[in-house]
Amino acid sequence: MSIRSRLLTLTALCLIGVYLEFPGILYAQESPDTTQNQENPNGNASTLPISSDWSKVKIATYSKGDQTFVIAMGTLVPLFYYNSEGFYKTNVSVGGTGYLNYNYFFNSHVSLGGEVGGSFSATIGRNMLYLVPFGLRLGYQFVLNRFEFPLGLTIGAANQGYLDKGYFGLIIKPSAAVYWRFNPDWSFGLNADWWWLPQWFSNPSQTMYGNFLGITLGARYHF
Questions:
Q1: Considering its fold, how many domains does the chain have in total?
Q2: pLDDT of the chain along its 223 residues, tens only?
Q3: 205, part of any domain
Q4: What dihedral do alpha carbons 67, 69, 74, 78 form, nearest 10°?
Q5: Strand partners of residue 172
Q6: Is residue 31 part of a domain?
Q7: CB-neighbour burial class of residue 149 (10 A; exposed 0-12, middle 13-18, buried 19+)
Q8: Of 167, 166, 168, 188, which Cα lies nearest the Cα of 177?
Q9: Are residue 134 and residue 218 in the same domain, yes or no?
Q10: I need a labelling partner for 211 at 20 to 30 A (CA). Which of 92, 129, 167, 218 fits?
Q11: Which residue range forms the structural domain that includes residue 143?
């Protein structure tokens, strides 16, 4: 076989090899696009449907470590006195009251803190009755959207003063309120408190239980 014949044979073999390999190369280059087109017929990866579980996650408004500081001012309405012999008029007019309290949350509902306040009311004889209560405060709160409904129970002591007389004794004050969350730092609302003030003496006829209703406007700072 001449050199020319050998060159023609080698060239023919090379062409046959390239022809056999070329479809495989084309398939390898086109297969990613084909897969993408199968997943998204429109060829737009940004429009692929994405499923997420974040919509099922509910973030609580309050959590452990959250704190609030409340300032409230309003009126104190004398309701009645009573003892073992019956009910009595207070002979005290509507007065003013205010308080400060602090609350630390252990979870999204339960809080513990303290409260201090004061009130003044005029009597029929135009004298003044002063009450200065303070104590520990246990709270439980419900939240509905931007509305918050804190319930509280304050147990402590109160210094009671009238003319030259004074009494230092127990106070129990349950409370309920509704607040509207203005922004992450502040909420504003209305409070209602029942003041129960016993005065115990050795003579049962002198023992008396005072009942007052406090209605106040409050501002709460959240931190």
A1: 2
A2: 556 566 666 666 656 655 555 555 545 555 454 444 444 555 555 555 665 555 555 667 888 999 999 999 999 999 999 998 899 988 999 999 999 999 999 999 999 999 999 999 999 888 999 999 999 999 999 999 999 999 999 999 999 999 888 999 999 999 999 999 999 999 999 999 999 999 999 888 899 999 999 999 999 999 9
A3: yes
A4: 60
A5: 155, 196
A6: yes
A7: middle
A8: 188
A9: yes
A10: 218
A11: 67-222
d(CA 20, CA 13): 11
Q: Is residue 60 part of a domain?
A: no
Here the CATH number for the domain that contains residue 189 is: 2.40.160.20
Q: What is the CA radius of gyration of the chain?
A: 40
Kindly state the tokens that stand for 141: 């709160």
12 plus 118 within the same structural domain? no
Amino acid (one-letter) located at 64: K
Task: Return the amino acid letter for 58.
Answer: K
DSSP conformational letter for 108: S
